[in-house]
Structure formats: C-alpha cells, structure tokens
Amino acid sequence: MQSRIRKRVALAGALAGLLATFVGTAGSAQAEDPAAEEGTTVGKVTGFEAKGSVYQLSAGAAKARVSFVDKETFRIELAPDGTFTDPTGKDIVQPQGKPPATRWKEKGDRYELSTGAVTLRAYKSPLRFALHRADGSKVWEETKGLTWTEDSTTQTLDRGAREQFYGAGMQNGRGNTSHRGQRVEVGVDYNWDDGGHPNSVPFYLSSAGYGVFRNTYAPNTYTFDEPVTAAAKEKRFDAYYFAGDTAKDVIGDYTQLTGKPFLPPIYGLEIGDSDCYLHNANRGERHTLDSLKVADKYLENDLPLGWMLVNDGYGCGYENLAETGAGMKERKAELGMWTEDGLDKLADQVKAGQRVAKLDVAWVGDGYKFALDGCKDAYKGIEDNSDARGFTWAPEAWAGAQRCGVQWSGDQSGSWENIRFQIPTYAGATMSGLAYTTGDVDGIFGGSPKTYVRDLQWKSLLPMTMTMDGWAPSDKQPYVHGEPYTAINRKYQKLHEALLPYLYSYAHEATETGVGAVRPLALEYPEDPKAATDAAKYEFLTGEDLLVAPVYEDTDVRDGIYLPKGTWTDYWTGRTYQGPTTLNGYNAPLDTLPMFVKAGATVPMWPGIRSYRDRGPEDQVAWDVYPQGRSSFTLYEDDGVTREHRDGKSSTQRVQVRAPRQGGGDIRLDVGAAEGSFDGKAEQRPYSFSLHTSDAPSAVRIGGHRLRDLGSAAAYEKAEEGWYYDRDDRAGVIRVKTAPRSTGRPFTLYAEDTSAVGGKVPGAGAGVSAPSGQEIPVGTASTVRFGVTAGTRDATGVRLALDLPEGWRAEPLKDLRRIPAGTTATVDVKVTPPADAESGERTLKVRARYTAAGQDRAVSGAFGVAAVPKPPKGDTWAGDLEWLTDTNGYGPAERDQSNGESAAGDGRTLSLAGKSYEKGIGTHANSDIEVHLGGRCSRFTADVGIDDEIKDYGEVAFSVEADGKVLWTSPKLTGTSDTVPVDLDVTGARHVRLKVTDTDKKKTGDHGDWAAAKFHCA
Fold this sequence. Notes:
Oligomer: single chain
Helix content: 10-25%
Number of strands: 73
Strand content: 35-45%
Shape: globular
Largest sheet: 10 strands, antiparallel
Radius of gyration: 30 Å
C-alpha cells in the first residue's frame, strides 16, 4: 500500500517539474494582465517610407512596419527600440505568393495604405491604426496607440455594440460561443480541466469581419471588454490581420498564412486505443505482443479499431515491434507509438510498421518552438520512412500545429462534468483553424459505464477520437463494461464508420478552407443572436448538416436543445421541427444521442462496416437524403492512405437534389460522374438512396427507366435494383437501390408525386414522448407511462406496439380510436422486469401506426426506464446493498475493506483513529456511490474519515445527497483529523448518494472510509 502512495507522490512531483520547465521556458500565461500595467504609448509619426507593399513609419526611436501579404492580409510590426526582430522565423508563417499591388496617399491627419479590398489608416498624432474596407466601412480602429512595457505590448481596439469574438485555440469549457466580455489566456498551463487552455493559438476573430494572429511564441492575454485589449508577454509587437466577409473567410486567410490542416489517413478517422504493454505497473506483467489480444477483443465484439498505441505510459518501452505491427495489420489496424523515448528512433519504428506518433513528455523542454518542431519532425519522420501520411497527436501545441497533428485536450477524468465542459471546447477550437481536436473517451482516470457511453456517443460525431487505458480502475475499451453498454458503443462507432465518406469529404474541405468539420452554430448561423450565447453552448454541428446535442448529466432527457432557422429532422424518429426553436424534455435514454439533420442534407455513407478495410472499391455508396429545395454534396475520394492525392490523384462526385420547398411534389437527384482518378478508384458501383419524405411516391425511375416497386423490406434486400416505401422507418423513407453503374457517367433519379421532408402536409406527423425518471423494481409489475401526440391533423386508428428488453414482459396495449390534432393521448401499461434483471437504465421503444391527413403513417419513439433493486427491509449495511453507481478515484470502491490497489478485494481492514470496523465502504476520492432505498428508510449512520493506513496523506470532504438534494457535508478532513460521526434523517428518500471529494486537488492518499455505514429502514 505505502509503495503505491510513494509512486503517486513521485509522479505528481515529476509532473510539477515538467510544468515548471515548460512554463519557465515559454513564459507564464497566468501572469497579471499586461494591459493593466503602466506603459509607454507610441507617439506621433516623425517619418514615413514606402517600398513596394512595405511601409515604415517612425515615431521617435520607435518604428512601425506595415507589410501587405495579399489584398486582405497584412502585417503590423512595432519595435520600441527601432530594431525589428522575428523570434518565430519560418516556424509558423508559411511562404506566401507575390505581394499585392498597393498604393498610398497622405490625407492631412493620416496616411492611407490600400489594396483593392482594404485601406489601413495610419493616423499621425499619435500613431494609431484603423482598418476600412474599400467601400469605406470601418472594420476595426485602435482607441489608443500601441503600448509597451519592459515585458509586454498591447493593442487597444474599439468594440462594436454587437461585436462577438472567437478563437484563441482550444479553450476548455468555452469557445463555441462568444468570448465577448471575457478574458482569454493563450499559453500552456497544463490545466486540462474546465478553464484550462491546452493547444492555445494566438489568434482571434471578430464578427465584424476580421481576425488577428500574433506572430510570437509568447503567451497572450485577450480581454474582450470595452475597449478590447490584446497583449503579448514580449517587448515587440508583431501581428497579421485578415479581413474577410465571413468567419470562414477569416479562418481561411489565417490558415493560408500558417498552413492548412493536413489530410489524415482514413484509419486516423477511426477510433484509436492507447496503453502501455511492457511491464505495466498498473496492470501487471505484460508484453508488447499482448496488445494483439486487445485488438482481438475489438474484433470479437464487432467494434471498429483504426490504430493502437502500444507504449503509452511513463517510461514504457516496447519489444517485438515489427511482429506487433504485422499483427495489427492482420487485425485491420495500424501501429502507433508514443515518442517518450525521443524522435531519433522514429525512422526504425516507422520501418517496423509505426504509422501514428503521439507527442508528450519527450518534447517538453524548450517551449512552444520545441513542441511545434516535434509535431513537424514526427509527421515528417513517418513520411520520410514510408509511403504513409504523417499522423501525430499532441496535447500542448501552438499556431501552425494544424499542419501536422491532432490536438487533444489532455489527461482528464471520466465524469459528467468532463463531458459538459468538453462539448464547447472542440467546436470552439475550429474557430482557430484547428480541424482535428478531441479528448480521450471517458478520460484516463475515473469514469463509469454510463459516462463512458454518453461520452463515446457524441465523440463518435467528431472526426476522430481515442481511448487511453491503464490509469483508471478498469481499462477504457468500448467492450469493457459488458452489456448493454457494449451494444450501445457499437451502435455509435458503427455510425461513425458509416459516416466516414461524409467526414473524409469534410477533412478534404479543411485542407482547402481551413475549416474543420466540427463547428459552432455561430459559424454557420452568424446572424442568429442565440448562436453566440449559452443557448447554443452545449451543442455543435458536424459539417453543415448534423446537429449534435450531447447528454452531459445523469438523466434520460435533454433540455435546452436549440435548433436554428430551418427544418430539422430527428435522426432517430424522423420527427421534424421548425427552427428557430428550443426543445425541452427530449427523451434521450442511454442509447440515444440527441441528433438532428438539416433539411436539404445529402449525406454519403458506407453502411454496415467495422473498418474502412471492409470495403472494396466497387462497393455501394449510400446517400441519406432529406429533400427540401435545392441542395448538393460533393463526395471526395482518394486511396485514403498514401500521399498520392497531393499529386492530384483523387476524384469528386457531386449529387444535386431538387425538391419542393415544402409539401408535395417530385424529387430529382442528379448524380454526377466521378471526376478524377486514383489507384483503386471504382469503375462502377451500386448506389442506394434513402429519401426522407413521409409520403410514398407514385413511381421511381432512373432517367426513362421505371424501377420496380419491391413492396417489402425482405424483397428489397434480395433484389439488385428497385425501391420500396418503408413507412415504419423514421416517419417514412423511400428506399432505392441500383445495380452497379459506371462511375464515369452521370444519371438522374426521380421520385414522383411524393414530398419534401416533413410530408405533403407539414406537421401532420405524430410524436411519442414519456416522462423522465420512471423506475421499476426488478421482478415487480409497475406502471410505465408514455404519450402519443397528434400533429396538425387528427391521428385515427392508432395501433400501438411496445418493444421491451429481453426477458421483460408487458400487458397488451389497447388501440386508440382517435387522437385530436395537437393533443396527447396518455398510455399506462404494466411492465415487469425479470427478478434477476441487472439494475440500470433500459430503453423501451413505442411504435404507432395511424392515419393522418389521408396518409397511412407510422411513428416511433424511445424512452428510458430504470430497473432498480427492491427497497431494503430493516437495518441494512450500506456495503451490503446493490450499488447503482460506484465511481471511484483509484481502483474499485471496496465493501468492508479500505481502498486497495486496482483489483477488487485487495484492501485492508477499515480503521479510523485507531478503531477497526468490520463493516463499511472504503473509497478513494473522488468517489460517488448510489443506492436505491425506495422511500423505505428513515436514518443513515456512519463514522467517516481518512483511513489510518494513509497517516497524514490526503484531504477530502464527505457528503450525502438524497434525490439530488445535499443533506450534509463534512468539513475538510485529513489523515490526522478526528473521526466524524454521521446521523442523518433520510425519510422518504428514493436514492441516496455517498460522495467523497478531493478538496486539495492532489489525489494522493485520499482514502475516505464510510465506516459502519448503515441505513435504518422499515
């Protein structure tokens, strides 16, 4: 036990040393705001020179220089001592083309420096800059001249009445909504929790139509008050400015300067797995080849796996690397390596099969330049020693890292809070040109089966993500927690695989525009006043078409889902909503991620695959179409692995849709030829189309050829070509498939006499809903309630069916004769889980067939109910009850023992202040244990404190919650504190949670005991 404590203290010291090293070389990002310090402001202009597109202004000893890069991009430098310097050199800014033609003129109080698009005004007394467009409209203006101190320079700008600000790289807990009114730090701080800023970028953009990149390695502080101040911790000023009509234009200009995002290999878009396999202190004796056994588990559980990092741990080495790499390829995965041992070994590792490089401790030493060089060198090392594309991961990067790597948000703990603050983080990072940002699924510490599922759900809609094993009580693979969790994780990872052509097309788009696939609503809906606010903070867009609103609390409903302007379709049920609107009470059982599709979406998919390698070049491409008005999507394809696409070896295929803006009419899909060529390009392939319409067509044809109506799902599956209308699928879908067709020839598909998404009578469809928090004791018949709500037309002849988990029973449902328009019919049904059912949330699904607006229709809906243990009888030890949740900081929480190592049952006798206890619970903060009392108990008693085996380590607080209400919280306790007795009234409580919280954030020796913990029940 004590040896483990010493190891943790040593690790904490090592991390502190690394932090001191990094901050010492790069400068502290947490220093006081330089703008608040007294400083010197640049004086009046005393000299002016023009040389081509470069202009120099003198103000006494200080000199300023303006250099135009293109017609919308320019650079302002200020040297207080008159000597210009450039510490970043060629590290960040990439070679640009020929400077634009410029002109200048003197106008009384100012000089005007112009291109065909913008004019920079340089006021003379004192020197002060303002940017205007060619039409004279102001973009930004300094309220005072550039200011400097001995270690900082600050620009001060006027703030518009409705001006919003974004950027600054990865800002944990924010970024996808406006920074207006906030102070934002740019610089490493190794705070990977809410409020930290890993992977900072000294760039911000404004809704006024401009962006600013500070060309420096120094930490920055942006304060978006009135006025705006932008400061860097160095006595020089060097910034590039971008003027664009939209935020996308500005991001594009910034990444034109600092480098477009790289195009990852397609296996990089698949989930990765990371762990140490050689002499793992946390998992016992293992060897590198044991990683193949884990890869086999992915295969056995039919789970995707793109790559595996096999030495991911402090000081973890490797052996049998070539054999391991070959074994990975046999399992349809690639080999990855952590660069802890330095980059000098990378060439040999790549030749042995390495295709992924993760950067971490090895490059901490010389600050941001070292980090950026590490990213570039690892990327180049893969490419120099193979025909593969460079592919790296880094947790503390800088401007320019989008060229070579994925940025992830650091070592975090699996929790609801972790899910919550990560949601705005990655979409916000897109606003700084970071196209690939993510976090470890369920963190690397802590976690639980439910937080794992909820975290993986929404991260499956990011372009890429990974799991990190070896630090939590159990590993983090998606199969570890068993059913029903494995099945849910499979569902979302398979969805991610199906979306690979959509995601890969957006990845290619990022190489041209700088804009990643994961986007804040404010990027796509800049005119929507709510998009910049907290109303849209906990949701994002994947591409333009998929809106994702993750569940970040322990609940089966989601409130506050904001849908912007347009028609939005629930991905799971087909129910449509007209935005702008906010949805509350959305039923989101554990297997349901709230996800909506924008009308007009045309989404290419690869259905049914576990790996991209499961596809042949001439396999089907499936298009999921939500027809409304005119829309299109361009599918991008190349070989997915090599670098030949850089020589133009790729192809694109565009699908254009013409449909009614609303209501009934014909749908036309123009499928273009696949233009371009690459090795492995399909010469012919079959197509399938899912047209979400809610109305069966009278006919479907390709050109003049009328396709056969196959009439059923079974006949459709057997046929090579044809169509049928599936009214039971998501409120009605026309399914069409074709025989193999030449990819070199376009064709046109027609669906006649059908409708736009939402049906011929918009809003006529019904919906299913249910109250949250429904519970059923196992082995007991209990009432479950749901409702069916008619749309804008009466629903008649309503026939209901209820899908239950295996082994569950329900009484027969009665049909409903009529549900008047706009009203809800409430249905109560007795449901019985089996007596041996495991506790936990289960999903019940309702299917209803009915007639509305003259059409036979169907609707489905899912909602959660919780199977719970039968309430305790009589006095019951807390350690003898079934625990609904048992989150623990290290290893499992122990029954009647102190917290042990990583295995169950390896603790010691509970001991507080010299007193031993036979009964109780031993935990390690942060810990959360939930029990079900069903309102049958009146009191809870216990003795609490830090176990004697810890001596003077640790600092924790205990608390007891009943049905979400905090009943009691202890003072902060250490290993030398007296035992605290607990005697609480819990009368009527259905659920009680026993929590132990780490109060000094050190997570060292926080062993909290609930000794003699007992519930006194009827």
